[in-house]
Structures are given as C-alpha cells and as structure tokens.
Design a protein that fits this description.
Elements lengths: L1 H18 L1 E2 L2 E2 L4 H29 L5 H26 L10 H9 L8 H12 L7
Length: 136
C-alpha cells in the first residue's frame, strides 16, 4: 500500500507540475519542484526493488526478515517523501478537498507507526542484522 500511495503522490505531483503555469511556464520546469519529486521516485523504486528481493528470498525458502523489515521502512519513508513533495508542489491547493492530496497526506503518515513503527524496525536491524546490543 505504501508503494502504491507513493506512486499516486508522484504521478499527481508530476501531472500538476506539468499543467500548472506561473509566469508563462510550467512550475515543473523549476528544479525546486523537480528534485523532490525525483527523489521521492528514487525512494519508491528502492522500496519496490527491495520488495522483490524479499519475495525472492521467501519463495526460495530463506529467511527474508531483514529484507521484509527494510521494505516496510523504505516504503513508509518513500510514501511520506512523495506525500510531502506532492503537497509542496500543489502549494495551498494541496489542502483543497477536490485534489485528495491532504486526505492521502494524513493517511500516509500512518505508515510511519503502523502496523509496526519504523523505530521498531530500526531496533530490529540494529540488534538482529548489525549485532548491536538490545536497546529496550
């Protein structure tokens, strides 16, 4: 769901940036608009690629614990980054109900804490992957 939401935010921001003109040119011509969207796209693709790796390991009968946790964290972060880029691209219109951006923005924040907090994922990675002492 996080990856799908990230794609929605990226597509919505990209389309709006192409269509919205200020001073006779599309706002998507500005690096300040382009770069956050492009970075969110890169984060989304990284999450997507890690998802495929976790699936591959699972189907091979191996333990995908590390990769599954990485997917959840990367996907939640990608969705949040894409949501922020989309809201920023829309400016004040991002809060208008007809664009659906503000509603989905609120919903995507949930991925940082549910079904498992990204901080718990960091604890798992620290202890079980990096071999650091238990922190809680």
């Amino acid at each position: 769901e996080c990856i799908g939401d990230a794609k929605w935010f990226i597509n919505t921001a990209t389309n709006y940036a192409k269509e919205r003109s200020v001073f006779g040119r599309p706002i998507g011509q500005n690096q300040g608009i382009q770069f956050p969207i492009a970075k969110a796209y890169a984060q989304m693709r990284a999450a997507e690629l890690m998802l495929h790796e976790a699936i591959r390991l699972y189907e091979a009968g191996e333990n995908p614990g590390e990769e599954a946790n990485l997917v959840k964290m990367l996907a939640a972060d990608a969705s949040w980054a894409a949501a922020e880029a989309c809201l920023q691209t829309h400016g004040g219109f991002g809060f208008a109900e007809e664009y659906d951006v503000e509603r989905k923005f609120r919903e995507t924040r949930l991925y940082q804490v549910a079904p498992i907090s990204t901080n718990l994922i960091l604890s798992y990675l620290s202890e079980h992957v990096l071999g650091l002492p238990r922190s809680y």
